Amino acid sequence: MLTRLSGWGRTAPTVARLVSPRDFEAVANVVKKSRERGVIARGLGRSYGDPAQNAGGVVLDMTRFDRIRRVDVDECLVDVEAGVSLDALMRVLLPFGLWPPVLPGTRQVTVGGAIAADVHGKGHHVVGSFGDHVRSLDLLTADGSIRELTPDGEGSALFWATVGGMGLTGVVLRATLRVVPVETSYFVVDTERLDNLDDLLARQSADDDRYAESVSWFDATATGPRLGRGVLTRANHARRDDLPAKPRRDPLAFDAPRLFTVPDVLPSGLLNRATARAFSELWYRKSPTRSGQVQNITQFLHPLDVIGEWNRGYGPRGFLQYQFVVPFAAVDVIRRVVERIASSGHVSALNVLKRFGPGNRAPLSFPGPGWTLCVDLPVRPGLGELCDGLDELVLGAGGRHYLAKESRATAEAVRRGYPRFEEWRAVRASVDPDGVFASDMSRRLEL
Amino acid sequence: MIDAVGNPQSVLVLGGTSEIALAVIRRYTGARKPRVVLAARPSPRRDAAVAELTAEGVPVTALDFDARDVGGHSAVLDKAFADGGVDVALVAFGVLGDAERAWQDHEAAIELAEVNYTGAVSVGVGLAERLRAQGHGVIVALSSVAGERVRRSNFVYGSTKAGMDAFYQGLGEALRPHGVTVTVVRPGFVRTRMTEGLRPAPLSSTADQVAEVVVTAVRDRRELVWAPAPLRLVMSALRHLPRAVFRRLPV
Ligand SMILES: Cc1cc2nc3c(=O)[nH]c(=O)nc-3n(C[C@H](O)[C@H](O)[C@H](O)COP(=O)(O)OP(=O)(O)OC[C@H]3O[C@@H](n4cnc5c(N)ncnc54)[C@H](O)[C@@H]3O)c2cc1C
């Protein structure tokens, strides 16, 4: 069926034939019959830009492949189909006392999407990214064959090209993931409120390694000396003994409230300077410094999941997310980017800052040692120029963009940011010489 | 592809020496350098445009294109699309002619009809087929307020623009489900080569001002715009005037 598709930012919709195959054989048939405009897999469409859409071609909806085939409690392994969401996976694992070690800011992503973008969570500095926990995966390649790939040994180059490969090496059908044991579904959280960016950066640098999860939010609307005032939240998984009596009776409990869904009729510009300032003020006020607080999953990890479809709050013109990483030595770039945005007249209410740990072997994996900053910017005139300017700062400092969020950079920017790009390209060319796998992003960035 | 903030990667101009179209190209080739295809009859003006863009580092190709040679349109479009498709296509050719000659001289009338209407329909069908296969893209049709309420003073031209305007609006509806946007732009009096020697009408504009309207409309995926914007109201009033009154207006 011809369907208009866009990413979470709702910025550049295009039309493709969306197909929802029922079994792997049907997927193979779609791939084998693909024509000039090619095929791309799509999970839950939570990437912000255009990697899961394919104008004039075929888009494979993978969400029907949602079976969790096996949970091995002793070995801490799960065998899942690629369309399983991390939300479903987490819910199934918890009663076993197991936990998916890498959860991004929303759990509404599929395993396939998490592999293709090699997603990271607040615990990257300790556990690495999603690909680090994949024991094996089945990849359907352009020739219609299915290969089982592992991180080491034969086929490992293709494995690591698939991790972070944005669906361009083939379709992930199934994966075996390593998970970790937990005693409870709660976190013991330390919250610190800091009144400027320098303090925030310094504090976050000081002792991140004591925490399994660490992230900070900051206010990009406050100006002058309060620029970048923020809230640092860091946590460890609660042990049973950490819990007060009541939750201790059901330590692995989980229920996620969904309060309301944003309707689809909001005008552009609802998020303006005034609302962003009000939101930022609120967020800052609600988070006074305190330590050792016990919080549940939604409170700590996914406060935004309480609002369904919140991306509509940005109105029909959509928004983009600008996320990059720069080496620790280039921390100054963080400051300059924040200043530029604050003085640009563009508004970002959701600003997230995190320290990454070491990267992995995947040539297109995003995380690497350094600071990552992520801002949400509604599309307005002048935004393109602002971002082009930020690119110079980021790339000049040896940084790079996150492809799962990318929607407006250039082909050269990706090549500069990912020095191993050609190595990845060679692997892709060897398994897909005719470019059967293609997306709007692959055409836009010449991937 | 067109990115999240509206930057196209490739722009095709049919009628590649149109001042408005070149002003649009200049706006698109500021910071980014999209691929540009200028389809026009060979002329020193076309050569100059190619030279100017090349000097600025814009990858530009010139194609021989004659609006009246409808048989050759398909081949021209094939070449224009060969390098990875077209994101924004401007239908920018047209002739104004001598208004009094145009309704009394058979050949002059037919030339206007063939270039402005038949030629526009011909490339419209060809663009539609190709953009539809792409699943995305924008066609910008440079229409005119002259077609909105046709005046005695230039009704042959006006009638051709009325026809092409209606065609492209309908085409926009037909292409909507295929991810393609058609933007019909209705400039008023534009002070260009084409109107040299004519007395500017009220609310006249420059090619550059029209270009600004075009680029904004494409970015916002608008389907019908006036240049300048207030003409929309003026034309709406004019459209509803009784003939007897309209006849006496000094427009
Ligand atoms: C609110 C929010 C917060 C987020 N926070 C984070 C965060 O903290 N950290 C982080 O890393 N990311 C974050 N993201 C981004 C998100 O995790 C990634 O974009 C992820 O890839 C989305 O998964 P998906 O299933 O929705 O995939 P889609 O968006 O549908 O697709 C993304 C890519 O995966 C490919 N793909 C999908 N399924 C398959 C498959 N079966 N086989 C091969 N390729 C496939 C697609 O082709 C595409 O290239 C966030 C997104 C949102 C909306």
Describe this structure in words.
- Chain A has 447 residues and is of the alpha+beta class.
- Chain A folds into 2 domains: 68-182, 2-Layer Sandwich (Uridine Diphospho-n-acetylenolpyruvylglucosamine Reductase, domain 3), CATH 3.30.465.10; 186-411, Alpha-Beta Plaits (2-Layer Sandwich), CATH 3.30.70.
- Helix content of chain A is 26%, strand content 24%.
- An 8-stranded antiparallel β-sheet of chain A has the order 16-12-14-13-19-20-18-21, with helices on both faces. Chain A has a 5-stranded antiparallel β-sheet with strand order 5-6-10-8-9. Chain A has a 4-stranded mixed β-sheet with strand order 1-2-4-3, covered by helices on one side.
- In chain A, strand 5 and strand 6 (77-81) form a beta hairpin.
- Chain A is globular.
- The two termini of chain A are 26 Å apart.
- The model of chain A has no long low-confidence stretch (mean pLDDT 92).
- By secondary structure, chain B is an alpha/beta fold.
- Chain B has a single domain, classed as NAD(P)-binding Rossmann-like Domain (Rossmann fold, 3-Layer(aba) Sandwich).
- Chain B is 45% helix and 15% strand.
- Chain B contains 9 helices and 7 strands; from the N terminus they run βαβαβαβααβαβαβαα.
- Chain B has helices at 19-28, 44-55, 73-81, 99-102, 106-134, 155-175, 207-219, 231-239, 243-248, and strands at residues 10-14, 35-40, 60-64, 88-91, 137-142, 180-187, 224-227.
- In chain B, strands 3-2-1-4-5-6-7 form a 7-stranded parallel β-sheet, sandwiched between helices.
- In chain B, strand 6, helix 7 (207-219) and strand 7 form a beta-alpha-beta unit.
- The longest helix of chain B is centred in the middle third of the chain and has 29 residues, at 106-134.
- Chain B is globular.
- Chain A binds chain B through residues 2, 4, 9, 11-16, 37, 49-50, 54-57, 317-318, 320, 379, 381, 383-385, 387-388, 407-408, 410, 440, 443-444, and chain B through 1-7, 9, 31-32, 84-85, 132-136, 177-179, 216, 219-220.
